[in-house]
Amino acid sequence: MPARELDVKGLHCPLPILRTRALLNGMETGEELVVYATDPASVIDFRHFCNTTDNALLSHETQPDEVHKTVFIYRIRRGV
């Protein structure tokens, strides 16, 4: 099953986490979500979110972007 995607580029804390949480709550256990964010604080926020919930942060990478300079990409697996 392909991962779902969520684009929260241009949004600032706490909106990326709130939108991620809302989408994950509607997903089945084991499904994966790829989130695209531009807020530099999201690096700390997504780690903390996954450490304090049953969701797993599978990967985190950065990618250059012409509009936002840097896009942070998070792959999260829905927990129990």
From TrEMBL:
> Record's Pfam families?
TusA
Against CDD domains, the record matches this protein to: SirA_YedF_YeeD
Q: Organism's domain of life?
A: Bacteria
Coiled coil (residue ranges): none
- SUPFAM superfamilies given in the database record: SirA-like (SSF64307)
GO terms, molecular function: transferase activity
Q: Where does the UPF0033 domain start and stop, copy by copy? A: 6-30
Q: Which UniProt keywords apply?
A: Transferase
InterPro entries xref list:
TusA-like (IPR001455), TusA-like_sf (IPR036868)
The family note in this entry says: Belongs to the sulfur carrier protein TusA family.
Q: What is this protein called?
A: Sulfurtransferase TusA family protein
Origin organism is Azospirillum oryzae
